[in-house]
Amino acid sequence: MRLFPPVWATNRQAYGDDVVGGERVRKDDTVTVSPWVTHRDPALWERPEVFDPERFTPERSATRAEYAYFPFGGGPRRCIGNQFAMMEAQLILAMTAQLFRLKPVPGHPVEPDPILTLRPRHGIVMTLHSRAR
Ligand code: HEM
Q1: Residue to probe by mutation, ligand 1, list 79, 82, 92, 93, most atoms within 8 Å of CB
Q2: What letters, b where the CB count within 10 A reaches 16 and e where it falls short, cover 15-37?
């Protein structure tokens, strides 16, 4: 959700003239904001390229800017399925990992494909190894 956010960019229309990060924005301009870019910004994240789930502990999240992490957008149009999506993903991961070890097939390329949502360009091919004896 941080390093490979499924919605890697989204847009907002400006209510009025403004200056954002030194750039002039006019009323009705479309401004693109990208979770992919912000989630990898070294000004906001320590060692941004490293997968480190522990960075989301309450202690380490306490001082993080609110919109440093926004895989579900923000404000009144924030994703309505946020909680459901996270619960579903965690349940599927836990139920699958209890039964199987998943190993990536060596040599198969894993590349992000930034179409409307971020997808693996060639799929992610894995072998499943039963944990049951
Ligand atoms: C990992 C899964 C998901 C991701 C990353 C995601 C991400 C997003 C994002 C970025 C937005 C735009 C928010 C904004 O512009 O501020 C959005 C909107 C929306 N999402 Fe999701 N979403 C996910 C799953 C779901 C699920 C499971 C549902 C429904 C059960 C859902 C329903 C919606 C709806 C209805 C909107 C439009 C909300 C509005 O415009 O008021 N999403 N989602």
Answers
A1: 79
A2: eeeeeeeeeebeeeeeeeeebbe
Nearest to 38 by CA among 21, 16, 59: 21
| pTM for the full predicted model | 0.92
CA 2 to chain centre: 4
pLDDT digits (tens, 9 = 90+) for 49-100: 999 999 999 999 999 999 999 999 999 999 999 999 999 999 999 999 999 9
DSSP 113: E
What pLDDT digit, counting tens, does each position of 22-34 carry?
999 999 999 999 9
d(CA 127, CA 74): 37
Distance CA 103, CA 31 (A): 40
